[in-house]
Amino acid sequence: MIDYKGIIDNLRDEDIIHLMEHFGVRNYKNTENAIIFPTICHNSNIEEASLKLYYYKDTHLFYCYTECGGQSIFKLIEHIYQARGQEYDWYKDVFLPVLDCSNFRELKNSESYHQLRDNYRKKNREINLPEFNKGVLDVFFKIYPEQWIEEGISKETMEKFGICFSFSQNKIIIPHYDAENRLVGIRGRALDEWEVENLGKYMPVQIEKKWYAHKLSLNLYGLNETKENIKKTGTVFIFESEKSVLKMEDFDCINCAVAVCGSTLNKFQINLLVKECHPRNFVICFDKEEKAGEDKYFSKLYKMCKKYSLYGNFSFIYDTENLLDMKDSPVDKGEDIFNKLLSRRVIVNAD
Ligand SMILES: [Zn+2]
User: Fold this and answer.
1) Which terminus in the chain has less CB density within 10 A, N or C?
2) In this predicted structure, what is the pLDDT of residue 292?
3) What's the predicted TM-score (pTM) here?
4) CA 79 to ligand 1 center in whole angstroms
């Protein structure tokens, strides 16, 4: 397993400055205990960002005093892409830049790292995602996590979608297939608190020094299982996370869900849907994000629908009645609430 903490602890102050400059930071204050940067973690415009993002030299962690709180360099870089609305690939755009800056020589000079990097670069030029051998999944256990059962995902559903468990990594394992049932990636839901806080809940999985990462923007999770249903009903529900697809499987209604595994929907994914199951109705079912009194998120979803409205009827779920908690997916409060949200969704018409 990769020693993330080791990588973080081996970053020198000049590495951090170098990385921040890479993201356009020009002014910062270097004090005895901390380096103080503009808050690019939540500001897409550096000019508007105040100097309230502290990097503490002893802990090697960042703290944003305006909004985001504590974050590792890995999390921070993800925040930067998210604030700018840029698509990113965790392995190539987050992990490698940090590794390249870190003096974590042991890993950097190892053959597997170079091989990994070269393979990855080669793969990225192909539009068809490379396939992994399904046999690799045999190292995991067919044990279904209690947390997910409590949330309403049945064992049958987990079995159908190949969910399993890794004791050595303390992760729920989620195999990702493409529409043709090829294994294209394996992601893990971390249960270790340090990892969740500092690296994120969902990450690609590594097995015996090999990463099973894939470009999430070139696939739709669940499509292999739900495309026939989408064909039948003519409607697709597009969610952010894998879990929402699993939850819908246990609803009474027929499962027409896919997940983008991020917070954007791109043209490649729309084309994939059109090619595989040509839906007429596209319903965006992203997590609840809007802060009270704001309309930034509404505009983001509206624009997203508008952009693709020539492909079909676009609409999006937007909770104005507090049926959901913040960060909830529209299926998190059960089928009745989902149906309520669905009936009140925002329809976006083509011009
Ligand atoms: Zn921030």
Assistant:
1) C
2) 79
3) 0.69
4) 8
d(CA 300, CA 292): 16
Q: How many CA within 13 A on the CB side of residue 189?
A: 16
Structure confidence at residue 72 (pLDDT): 93
Report in angstroms the alpha-carbon separations of 317 from 52, 166, 237, 308, 345.
34, 34, 10, 16, 5
Please tell me the predicted confidence (pLDDT) of residue 124: 43
What separation in Å is there between the alpha carbon of 107 and the centre of ligand 1?
30
Q: What is the per-residue pLDDT for 119? A: 54
**DSSP secondary-structure letter at 93?**
I
What residue type is 6 in one-letter code? G
**Is the pLDDT confidence value at 94 over 50?**
yes
Q: Which two tokens stand for residue 109?
A: 């000079």
Q: How far is the CA of 18 from the centre of ligand 1 (A)?
A: 19
Query: Tell me, what's the pLDDT at 98?
Result: 87
Structure token digits, residue 152: 């309403």
